[in-house]
Amino acid sequence: MAGESATTPSSSAACPAVEAVGLTRRFGARVAVDGLDLTIPRNAAFGLLGANGAGKTTFLRLVTGLLLPSRGTVRVNGRCPVREARAVQRGLGFAMETGRLYPELRVAGFLRFAGSARGLSGKALADAIERVVDAFSLGSVTQRLVGHLSKGTQQRIALAQALLHDPPLVIVDEPTGSLDPLQRREVWSALAGLVGRRTLLICTHDLEEARALCARVAVLRAGQLVAEGATDAVLGGADTLSLFRPAPGAAPEPRA
Amino acid sequence: MTPLLALCRKEIASLFGSTAVYLTLTGVALVSALIFFDHLRLYNQMLFVYASSTMGGFETDTIPDYVNLWDSVFFPVMETLGLTLCGAVPLTTMRVFAEERSRGTDELLLTTALAPGQIVLAKFAITFAFVALMMVASFVYPAAAIERGGLGAQHLAAVFVGLLLHGVGVASIGLACSAFTSSQLTAAVSAWAVAFVLWDFAWITPFASEPVAGMLDAIALRPRYGHMAEGFVVIADVAYYFGLAIVGMAIARLSFDLRRIGT
Fold this sequence. Notes:
The structure holds two protein chains of two kinds. Chain A folds into two domains: 13-91 and 167-246, 3-Layer(aba) Sandwich (Rossmann fold); 101-166, no CATH class. Helices cover 30% and strands 24% of the residues of chain A. Chain A has eight helices and nine strands. In chain A, the strands form two sheets. Chain A has a six-stranded mixed sheet, with helices on both faces. Chain A has a three-stranded antiparallel sheet with strand order 2-1-4, covered by helices on one side. In chain A, helix 3 runs parallel beside helix 5 (151-163) and helix 5 packs parallel to helix 6 (181-192). Chain A is globular. The two termini of chain A are 15 Å apart. Chain B is built from ten helices and no strands. The longest helix of chain B is centred in the N-terminal third of the chain and has 35 residues, at 69-103. The radius of gyration of chain B is 21 Å and the shape is elongated.
């Protein structure tokens, strides 16, 4: 399936956080990501923008190894998610859209599970939980069921679990898609605290969010890169919205 | 704690956080009791009729051979329990993979240190443990029939192994079905369809050639289960159920690869 070219894996600090070359993903006749060439530098907040169905989530799934590319290559911290999916996944934290948690678990139990599932145990696990609980102000809800909490708090929990193992790359998909303004501020504040210490890849269709959090952005339309650069340069123009207008006949992005 | 143990622990918490699981556990125990006491009532009625003064009672030895605890209570109870499990077990397996998919938490699992094979292994292991618990709840009545019928501990053990393996076999079918959908209803219905079709092929024997009938009989659940209900633990039957579990796990594992390729 994948036209992956073999190169020597490397996780040296010199390589970019994510490097896609001619990355293509098809779902039947539909091309969700179309020959994408994109480099995401380390230790910066990078926004991946685009209208619904532009191919953002498919790109994230290709980066995380959840999907295989139809053509082209992608490397994450110098490693190939096709052949080294486990190694790539160990080096990233993935905070998915709101609600993709276990509502029947208590927050503390969920964080313990998420940390253990990433190989943490004993004191390292306890310290990691304490660190993220403090960082995301979850101290008052640790004994509550995840499903009983507000969406804003759930999103903070999703971010907290992604940071338990202190990964160099954190991927956040639609962090505030269904939140009210106050909850959005809470999540933005949490995300802003991460900027500069690790690579933050934020997938969003919210321009305000991108301006608030990201140093650089890329805009996808119908799976193709239509703009990339410093946030102010890309989103500062008078006709910014034209970048987001879907191509004629574009269908919603499928859930693979 | 290793990632695998952490997932097992999470599975137990999720399992016992589900209302459907308690309902299924209670339902199986209740149906087992109803089946058992209904057959016991019929058996007592027959005994009463044959033992009455007009029939001559026990002294004249007029009670036919087929009126015994074995044929009148034990076998019908086991038969109906086997079918009950075909109906009940998919209610507990339907959520195992399908719920993860519908919530999107499968992607959370797959971006941890857990390999797909470990996810499948943990989910199957915890489901099998729950099936064992369900068997204990439904085994009280066959055990009582065996004890009263004087069949002995060996027979009791064979029957329990039979029930357990049958439950594990149906659970494997249910889990494999659950791995291919995000709809719990689709998972349950497809598992019921496969389990009930696999239950018995005796009805098709008159219409099929001998090799086909033999092959169908070899993959049917009922003959294997029947041997153990009769008190015989045959290696081939145990291997059949283990094979069913391995095939179920392989199919569930395959579903992860197919999703990565997904078209």
